[in-house]
Amino acid sequence: MTRTGGVAPRLAEALAVVLGVEQIPLRLRAWDGSEAGPEGAPRIVVRSRRALRRLVWAPGELGLGRAYVAGDIDIEGDVFDTFAALSSAGRLSVPGGSPDAAPGERLRLLGTALRLGAVGPQPPPPPEEIDPGRHGRRHSRDRDATSVSHHYDVGNDFYALVLGPSMVYSCAVWDDEATGLDAAQQIKLDLVCRKLGLRPGMRLLDVGCGWGSLALHAAREYGVDVVGITLSVEQAALARKRAAEAGLADRVDIRVQDYRDVDDDPFDAISSVGMAEHVGRAQMPAYAARLHDLLRPGGRLLNHAISWRAGDTSWDRDTFIARYVFPDGELLRLGETVAALEAGGLEILDVDALRGHYALTLRAWVRRLEEHWHDAVAASSEGRARVWRLYMAGSALAFEAGAMGVNQVLAQRPGGAPPPLRRTAWV
């Protein structure tokens, strides 16, 4: 039986302060069984006073994220409906993260916490959190390796449950919504190979090769020799295993290596799919120049990367995504990426915008995570599964709203054979 009065109305006022709104866009149930908020709205459960204490210490997106990852706050019903309501409210609607509450609002929040007996030391963050201020120069080789390991070395079994048999962790390409995730990923892999103009006997460098899916497809279907590089030890181990099982170990060389350390050029083509987000704005000119130098004249580069389309183009260090998902990640505007590639000596041949495709991909990943929730928790941790659910659902909504895009930029090192006259050569 739902209680009227009780803790929930005060919690609703506190959450309204954090969100920067007059009334919360959610129905809230408190630890004492009381409820508040608009009837029929998406529902959340605040399970303990610790959730409120987290918001007192971090009154914004980070505090909410910590409370959800730790299980202090939970969601009832559809995750997309709940996050859509939250992301449309006040501060959370600000692209790139939400500013914390003002000093006066913090005092109101502290007063509510005092009345509800929630004042106390700052709760430790969930173990899935990483401190962006850790030692090491930003985007140095060692720090980049640590950041990549934080995101990708969370268990290959976990990723297999979310990604499915394709083991592709980047935007798929869908003919329509009925295509299905696995088929859409195969379409994407083949599209990349055709854009690069791969032919038997060529050498392909796959930068950020993940679990080797593109490398295997290119070797098997196009007869090329592939060098795949990643900074994730777990990714490399599985990619090598998959190559051996496919009888392609002599054609696919998987390395744990930084792109800055590749020295066995030239390559006929380079793919960089979902990797440039880890490079950083300051390093983009050197990244573009290095990939240019690794290509033979006339060789093509396909750079597939998420772009930021609204507001600031970098994540504040105290946002959820910076501490839990992509530490040191930076999203560039599409124009910045194109300018860096051109400044690096590459000619732009084509730009393909895939924003709607990524929203479909993310929704499919969330469905798979939820369908395999208990196995995913067993393969990693409940906190890790919650991180991925929050980040993927929130990202899907951001793509749908147009705050983020994803683009395949096809470029060529001058010299060699001229590019096709029409893009029909690969579409």
TrEMBL record:
Keywords: Lipid metabolism, Methyltransferase, S-adenosyl-L-methionine, Transferase
GO molecular function: methyltransferase activity
Pfam families: CMAS
Region (Disordered) residue spans: 117-148
GO biological process: lipid biosynthetic process; methylation
Family: Belongs to the CFA/CMAS family.
The name this protein goes by in its record: Cyclopropane-fatty-acyl-phospholipid synthase
